[in-house]
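anyone seen this seq b4? input:
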Amino acid sequence: MTSRLRRLRVSATLRDMLAEVRLSRQDLVAPIFVRPGEGSNEIPTMPGQFQHSHDSAMDTLRHWSDSGIPAVLLFGIPPRKDPTGSMAWDESAPVQRLVRAIKRELPSLCVITDVCLCEYTDHGHCGVLETSADGKTSVDNDATVELLAKTAVSHARAGADIVAPSAMMDNQVSAIRRALDEAGHTDTAILSYAVKFASSLYGPFRQVAENAPAHGDRRTYQMDYRSPRQAILESSADAAQGADMLMVKPAGTCLDVIAEIRRRFDLPLAAYHVSGEYAAIKFAAMAGAIDEKAAVCEITTAIKRAGADIVITYYAQSLASWL
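predicted toks r here
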């Protein structure tokens, strides 16, 4: 008897019937950037992605909701910046204003808010800075954690369903959970950027979010991609502190990490297909080097296959029409 495994691949119908991994619209989260002013600005390094004004963002979100996208991840570009990033927890800031509008008009849309200070500080780091006796400047972990908690409470008060701390400060999850509970937001979930590697693939994001560090880099608090075992320690710490969901970022270069986190933890797992990964596909497709739809479906399905329950991707709108 001859084994012929190709028999199970002879038609598209059969291949679809036997597919073991299925990516659906319900798995998708779409990032969106909101700023003061009017209209929208397309990002040169991310064709098809924009900095939105409030009105432009709402128009986009209505379309996304109608197309079946279940959740969005909000990032804000404030009207002003300062050393502590105080606009992050300002009730009139773009994110808080947009959250309130979404919950009035599109209440079923799940709203996730990024909780970090890098877009709001004038130095571009993810927290407040301190200078040591020998003149070295670094991010003050504990002072930053308190400001992240204030920001999370502000987002929850506006109506956010989920807050997503991304600053990679030690003990940020426990501080946010405690602050949310004390403020009466016990139902607000925490999606922790538990595994966030320092990556060259964040470049386009820093252009759209206007948050590139004015000096130094973020490698003292974001993880080293050469040290995957630290991902287990970070995830364990955040799970113990009360995270409701975990995240791995970036997704495409960390499929092994996604698989290991999935194996070790029962919490829902998100993976962020980041700006540089989006741009690489987009520009390769624009050059005619690859089929954009085929590449996007293959790569995002691989992220799901590795173990992610949720895929955060700038291709969410396109995938919603393709799937």
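The two ends are 38 Å apart (CA to CA). Residues 141-158 form the longest helix (18 residues). kinda curious what u guys think
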